Amino acid sequence: TQLLEQSPQFLSIQEGENLTVYCNSSSVFSSLQWYRQEPGEGPVLLVTVVTGGEVKKLKRLTFQFGDARKDSSLHITAAQPGDTGLYLCAGPLPYNFNKFYFGSGTKLNVKP
Amino acid sequence: EAQVTQNPRYLITVTGKKLTVTCSQNMNHEYMSWYRQDPGLGLRQIYYSMNVEVTDKGDVPEGYKVSRKEKRNFPLILESPSPNQTSLYFCASTPIQGTTGELFFGEGSRLTVL
């Protein structure tokens, strides 16, 4: 079983729609990061959330860290084809910052 | 240009034939790590290194070895590859691993073991 569970696994939407991706765990995380990965490339960091309840905005993307630091969400407003990719949440557990865990990923396809 | 470079990018090999995937970073980062990516499982950490000569196991270390003799290089060694090690491998580095350390990834090495 994955330490970080992401849902949905796949998402195919039309340009202009809104969507939310979820990242959940039964464990508390020191922080959570969101990465985006495009085919043939390594993941690239989008954001890091550190404080429980924190909300960060990056243009049309809104990231939230749950109050208990066990979950996070990524909301995209008015999705564009350029948002297409694999979205991964990731983070270290509080007792060992060197061991990094990733979610299984959400594959997003935004159709023009 | 700041980057993490992996080689080879693609490799097809046979069971039991030792191979090494190299990883080099030019950002003077202390922390480096290896991951494998399999469909539906995201990335799983194989090994990590906090500095030269300091390495430790991640979540899926079986069948792999690493070494960190120089700060910039962190090769992944498969002494006797098996088909279940067919995967996409990523090397990553970060200045100092901590709660907010951004991981910088290489472009990946796709390995097929027949």
Comma- or semicolon-separated keywords:
A: 112 residues, mainly beta, six-stranded mixed beta sheet, 11 strands, B: 114 residues, globular
Protein described:
The complex is a heterodimer of chains A (112) and B (114). Chain A is mainly β and 112 residues long. Chain A has no helices and eleven strands. Chain A has strands at residues 5-7, 10-14, 19-24, 32-37, 44-49, 55-58, 61-65, 71-76, 85-93, 96-102, 106-111. In chain A, strand 9 (85-93) and strand 10 form a beta hairpin. The radius of gyration of chain A is 13 Å and the shape is globular. The mean pLDDT of chain A is 94. Chain B has 114 residues and is mainly β. Chain B contains no helices and eleven strands. In chain B, the strands form two sheets. In chain B, strands 2, 4, 5, 6, 9, 10 and 11 form a seven-stranded mixed beta sheet that branches. In chain B, a hairpin with a 2-residue loop joins strand 5 and strand 6. The A-B interface holds A 2, 4, 6, 9, 30-31, 33, 35, 40-45, 48, 50, 88, 90, 92, 97-105 and B 4, 31, 33, 35, 40-45, 48, 50, 56, 58-59, 90, 92, 97-103, 105-108.
